[in-house]
Design brief:
It is a single chain. The protein has helices at about 135-145, 165-180, 190-200, 240-245, 280-285, 315-320, 340-345, 510-515, 600-605; strands at about 20-25, 60, 75, 80, 90-95, 100, 110-120, 270-275, 290-295, 320-325, 330, 355-360, 365-370, 375-380, 385, 390, 400-410, 420-430, 455, 465, 475-480, 485-490, 500-505, 520-525, 525-530, 535-540, 565-570, 590, 645-650, 655-660, 675-680. It is an alpha+beta fold. Strands 1, 5, 16, 17, 23, 24, 26, 28 and 29 form a nine-stranded mixed beta sheet that branches. The protein is about 10% helix and about 25% strand.
């Protein structure tokens, strides 16, 4: 039965004690935080299993100078313009990992980066109703990806009786659907977790001597893994899918693709960084361009379960199901009705792949399916163990010492719809005491392969040394995720131009107080572009990074993040140039605010948008301008917004500047400076 054995690295049980770490620094990783004003996150199970220290993570951004609290519309989601068919939108993804990677001989390691998106819709689409009888409202709550305003985990009712009873099962499913709460965060869907909880675990996997046990359904499900052998739930994440890559089941978040599911994509593979000799295998098994199969059952008289427990074709047929092929997608071109028109569309889709196929093989309709580009596969950045710091990156990413990073292309959605997405990074590590790629279930409970806390008789007298070797930790997966962000369609004057996203990483506090996050810095803090390129300057911050009683050193109101950007002289200096002295902006225009001249752009970036121009324009009300605003900006920026959409900059001449953040740059304490250079 277990002919299917798909293993990348074995992973382990969640244990108490000190956790290892992988932290997403840009875009800012949540580590399951929402908006806590405490040192530690409130709930490690809110959305996903990170395995990270409770102190890690960044709060969701605030739109204004006061905490959003329970008002969703006062939260700030980062907004990036996507790639188009002719040019990319570049985002620098940066992270730190504790135990080493990238050819470090002390372990085996890889990094996986993915995203998942859906249609953004409008503010009216955000689930605000608790109505259990209105299908539209229920479906909004089930599928709408969000951070929410509560740090509690979404609920799930575990089965407590025979699941073959169809009438009972449908009641249980409906109860779970209506239990999805509008105020709680949601990444994966309740349907995805439900299929995971019912699906058999892959019995070919190496689990050492860890006892996975059985679920109430009478067998071990995909909700139990070597790392999660007690079946703990973290949001609606599937533990087995989390712990293994490439996964053998399609990661669809719903059985349907319709108006209710709002364009929900599966997990899309962006990059795998590890041993380059594995790249062919990774590309051949990435879901992006390689269909996956799932066991599908016919609905019974009660319209209940359509997902089977089997993970092989043979056992699926024995279960009475159909072995159905699923294609990955980022969009469906619904206005393209024929194969010939789909082939024409494929010629103008840039890096995306277009296929004319059924979305799933049991469907009656062929569609024009947009798939993401091939997964990027390369060597991982070299990092030393017991360290959350700089790495030896490769290529252009290693011009100066930085944390581990890779520059990715944001996706291109040909529909022109705005999307809301989440990005996740997984850090997989394994000991080399056994071959993680070629050790399977036939080696389970074999002390000759690996043993828990073994004693080695080093002196030959029967009194040896005990090794701190926990089979639940000889392979392990750590994870972090961004907060939900938006990808916007480009405006016409952005077409065909490369966009570089210039952001701010870090949060309030000194080096010790922010750890394992970082202090403030621009990212990338050294940027060279061509005159025809565009740069989107944008940042986000929180008003509740207080760190409780652990301290939040910095300038201005305690617990608040603020940034600005002002031209300065040589990088070793600390005084900004005044707006009148700054010359760089004479060669800059804004594509997001065409009414703004160079002076207006400089004023906006210097004040984090507190002033939108020097004087009122069609796009900047006079009472928000430098000349017209009655209350002036505080000298520590306390009344400025924590987040700023900024400007997409277009350059009319070559040149460059060094720049500084006046709020956070504090010589001998912290530095927040950068440089940008425009060349032909």
């Amino acid at each position: 039965m277990w002919s299917l054995v798909t293993v990348v690295l074995a992973v382990t049980l969640l244990v108490t004690g000190c956790y290892g770490d992988c932290y997403l620094q840009n875009p800012r990783g949540s580590n399951n935080r929402l908006n806590e004003d405490t040192t530690n996150r409130n709930n490690a199970n809110r959305l996903f299993d990170s395995q990270n220290n409770n102190k890690g993570g960044y709060n969701i951004g605030d739109r204004f100078d006061k905490a959003a609290g329970g008002d969703i519309l006062r939260q700030y989601a980062m907004q990036y313009y996507g790639s188009d068919k002719d040019a990319s939108s570049k985002l620098m993804v940066e992270w730190t990992n504790q135990h080493g990677c990238g050819g470090n001989p002390k372990l085996s390691c890889n990094i996986v980066i993915q995203y998942m998106c859906m249609n953004n819709g409008t503010d009216d689409d955000y689930p605000r109703s608790s109505d259990k009888s209105d299908l539209t409202k229920v479906e909004q709550r089930k599928y709408y990806m969000r951070e929410g305003k509560s740090t509690s985990t979404q609920k799930y009712i575990e089965p407590s009786k025979d699941e073959s009873n169809g009438s009972w099962l449908i009641r249980m499913r409906v109860r779970n659907d209506v239990k999805v709460h509008k105020n709680k965060g949601l990444h994966e869907t309740v349907w995805w977790y439900e299929t995971c909880r019912y699906r058999e675990a892959n019995g070919g996997l190496f689990t050492a001597d860890q006892n996975l046990g059985k679920d109430k359904i009478g067998y071990t499900s995909a909700a139990r893994t070597r790392q999660n052998n007690n079946g703990n739930r973290h949001g609606y994440e599937c533990p087995e899918e989390r712990d293994y890559f490439p996964y053998w089941v399609p990661t669809y978040q719903t059985d349907l693709v319709n108006e209710y599911t709002q364009g929900r994509t599966p997990w899309i593979d962006v990059a795998w960084l590890g041993e380059k000799s594995r790249c062919d295998y990774i590309k051949e098994n990435s879901f992006n361009h390689n269909a996956k199969y799932r066991c599908v059952l016919s609905k019974d008289a009660y319209g209940t379960r359509t997902y089977g427990r089997s993970i092989t074709e043979e056992s699926c047929k024995a279960e009475g199901g159909n072995w159905v092929k699923f294609n990955s997608f980022i969009e469906i071109l619904t206005d393209v009705k024929t194969e010939s028109d789909c082939k024409k569309a494929a010629k103008s889709q840039g890096a995306n792949k277009i296929i004319w196929e059924k979305l799933r093989s049991d469907d009656d309709t062929e569609r024009c399916i947009v798939q993401a580009p091939q997964i990027h596969c390369d060597e991982a950045p070299w990092t030393r163990d017991n360290h959350l710091g700089n790495a030896e990156n490769f290529g252009s990413n290693n011009d100066h010492p930085n944390a581990s990073r890779i520059e990715i292309d944001l996706p291109y959605f040909p529909s022109g719809q705005a999307k809301r997405c989440v990005l996740r990074i997984r850090y997989n590590i394994s000991t080399t005491d056994y071959d993680g790629w070629n050790t399977f279930s036939n080696s389970n409970n074999n002390n000759d392969v690996i043993e828990n806390d073994p004693t080695v008789d080093v002196f030959g007298d029967g009194n040896g040394f005990e090794l701190a070797l926990n089979t639940a930790q000889t392979g392990r997966t750590f994870q972090d995720r961004s907060h939900v962000y938006q990808i916007l369609p480009r405006t016409g004057d952005m077409a065909g131009k490369t966009i570089y996203n210039l952001n701010v990483r870090g949060k309030r506090g000194n080096l010790v107080q922010t750890f394992p996050a970082t202090e403030y810095d621009f990212i990338p803090n050294r940027l060279t572009v061509r005159k025809n390129d565009l740069v989107h300057v944008q940042w986000t911050g929180s008003n509740t990074h207080n760190n409780n009683n652990d301290g939040d050193c910095g300038e201005g109101t305690e617990g608040t993040d603020r940034s600005n950007l002002m031209e300065m002289g040589p990088e070793g200096e600390n005084y900004p140039k005044t707006i009148a002295q700054s010359k760089f902006w004479e060669g800059v225009k804004s594509l997001t605010d065409p009414d703004a001249d160079g002076t207006d752009i400089a004023i906006g970036l210097a004040s984090a948008g507190y002033y939108c121009s020097k004087k009122g324009t069609d796009s900047c009300p006079a009472d928000r301008s430098l000349n017209g605003r009655k209350t002036k900006i505080n000298n520590k920026m306390n009344n400025a917004p924590a987040s700023y959409f900024g400007h997409v900059l277009k350059f009319t001449k070559t040149g460059g500047m060094n720049y500084v953040c006046t709020r956070n740059n504090n010589f001998s304490n912290r530095s927040q400076k950068g440089s940008i250079w425009v060349k032909n």
